[in-house]
Amino acid sequence: MRIGVMGAGSIGCYVGGRLAAADVAEVVLVGRERIRQEIAAHDLRAVDMGREHVAPAARVRFETDAAALGDCDAVLVCVKCAQTAEVAGELAGVLRADACVVSLQNGMHNAERLRARLGERVVAGVVGFNVVSKGEGVFFRGMSGPIQLEARPGARRLAGVLRAAGLEIELHEALEPLQWTKLMLNLNNAVSALSGAPTVELLRAPGFRRLVAAVIEEALAVLKVAGIAPAALRGVPIGWMPTVLRLPTWLVRIVTRAQMKVDPEARSSMWEDLERGRLTEVEQLNGEIVALASRLGVDAPLNRRIVERIHAAEAAGAGSPRLDAEALWAALT
Ligand SMILES: NC(=O)c1ccc[n+]([C@@H]2O[C@H](COP(=O)([O-])OP(=O)(O)OC[C@H]3O[C@@H](n4cnc5c(N)ncnc54)[C@H](OP(=O)(O)O)[C@@H]3O)[C@@H](O)[C@H]2O)c1
């Protein structure tokens, strides 16, 4: 298969890098000149909790124009949500009619936005792990987890190739409940971004856990009013999460260790966005809850204040405000 990546940043370079390093497909990455130069100088290194998958620069085709994706069998859309409509337009002009398009983005509406321009060939996806760009061609995956794809035509063949590269792939008839579950987990991204704390510390420090539990609990209450039932997370109902987070730290360690592996350096991509002076996806995460609450005539004050704080940090452009758990609790409650 020839597989394209539209938006070769953290997720796109990691997944594209795994495919290219395993040499299981021809890979075409489309992204920015800065990253093209980084990879040309240092090769593409998808680092997976201690293991490095290297795709030599000579084997990586990196372009800066979507026109390069014209002969791909499948294209993975890996841009931030705010850029989805724009790249849908770019892809509409270049893709083959039978090319499959997969959204590997967070948020609830990307596949729908892509379908508006590209039709029913669009497959929604959920990436269950996180990746940050560390410079010098290194894309660092900080936790375990699968990529979940909607079981639509085109997804099965692609799933086979992704599995051949060693990635954990699940196919699901209904993706929306899994997208809501991922959104619930992503509500902690803003806590990570505002504090600058690594994911491990968010799980270990009771002050951060109390805050994340309250944010998720508020969101779950809004979903309940809306009649939305998120999927279980590896067999555990997501509704249990606030209770789990409020357990003593030693018990939380045992429960989370059974669920996933987290590298001590892992941080959210929202933290990375603030540090790099970019706009975040807070509107598509906590903002999705605030908007849903507002449509239902209920309030979601914690998530609302988080959105305001993140926007203030974006406007300040000085990176993460690095608030500790107590300062954050005081600011948000
Ligand atoms: N990173 C994670 O851990 C993670 C995990 C799960 C899901 N996701 C989701 O995956 C999506 C991508 O996240 P990410 O962290 O990989 O973002 P990212 O690092 O910002 O990567 C996206 C890249 O695409 C580039 N781009 C945007 N529009 C383009 C265009 N028209 N042509 C060429 N390049 C373009 C961006 O450049 P500019 O910055 O210059 O626009 C950026 O370099 C998001 O929806 C995110 O929520 C991320």
Low-confidence stretches: none
- Secondary structure tally, helices: 15
The residue-averaged pLDDT reads 95
Main β-sheet, in a few words?
8 strands, mixed
* Portion in strands: 15-25%
The tally of beta strands, per DSSP, is 12
Overall geometry comes to globular
Relevant CATH superfamily of the largest domain: NAD(P)-binding Rossmann-like Domain
Structural class: alpha/beta
In spatial order, strands of the major sheet run 5-2-1-6-7-8-11-12
> If you consult CATH, what is the topology of the largest domain?
Rossmann fold
Distance separating the two termini: 51 Å
Ligands (ions, cofactors included)? NADP nicotinamide-adenine-dinucleotide phosphate
Approximate helicity band: 40-55%
Order of helices and strands: EHEHEEEEHEHEEEEHEHHHHHHHHHH
What integer value in Å does the Rg equal? 19 Å
From the 3D coordinates, which CATH architecture of the largest domain would you assign?
Answer: 3-Layer(aba) Sandwich
Secondary structure layout plus pairing:
Elements: E1 2-6, H1 10-22, E2 26-30, H2 33-42, E3 44-48, E4 51-55, E5 61-63, E6 74-77, H3 84-92, E7 100-103, H4 110-118, E8 122-127, E9 131-135, E10 138-141, E11 147-150, H5 155-164, E12 169-172, H6 176-186, H7 189-195, H8 199-204, H9 206-226, H10 241-245, H11 249-259, H12 269-275, H13 286-296, H14 301-316, H15 325-332
Parallel strand pairs: 1-2, 1-6, 2-5, 3-10, 6-7, 7-8, 11-12
Antiparallel strand pairs: 3-4, 8-11, 9-10
Helix pairs in contact: 3-4, 7-12, 7-14, 9-13, 13-14
Bound molecules: NADP nicotinamide-adenine-dinucleotide phosphate.
